[in-house]
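Input sequence (199 aa), recorded before submission:
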Amino acid sequence: MGGSSPRPRGLVRLAAFGVAVVAGWTVFPLAALAAPSPSPDDVRTLEQGRTLTVAISPNDLFDIPASSADVTLTALKQAERLPQGEHLEPEVAERGTTFVCLEFKVENVSTEEFDTSHLTKARWIGKDGETKNVDQVIGTHCAGVGLVEENLLAEPDPRPGEFVRGTTVFEVPDGQAGVLEFADGLDHPLFKVETTASR
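Predicted structure, token format:
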């Protein structure tokens, strides 16, 4: 009877799967805590006219299954002004920034619906190391510079075997070259797209 009390079975099971319990509330996979973030040089580059197969990581906490898609960058344009139609004023970039218009074709090659929202937000990293989180510019389109008018955020998420086309518009600093880096909901990089200086 004098031995140490037995370890609760739940803790043994958690330890076996490499999970840490913090203050009885938060559970973190130990592998995720230890995994280093890749540098921009390690992330695949998606060039205009090229296709990459990208995979979305599963997230059990939010009941998000793994999915994948062939993502093609069908067009890329940078501009200071985006014409919005015959009777509308053009959209003008803020001083020191430029618009980046990306036209994607996203074809679902998995057995689950593919969430295209991961292609509507990015991290911009400048050549000198400056970085910014950038979201899609709402209320403007890139049809005036030759891209499709459809906004990717407004298109349905493609189901298995389906594809969608749409454009994402970002506003990034214009003084230096950089990259737009896209990631899934767990911040696993999907790909990057290069941007150029416009002044």
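Checked by second reader. The radius of gyration is 21 Å.
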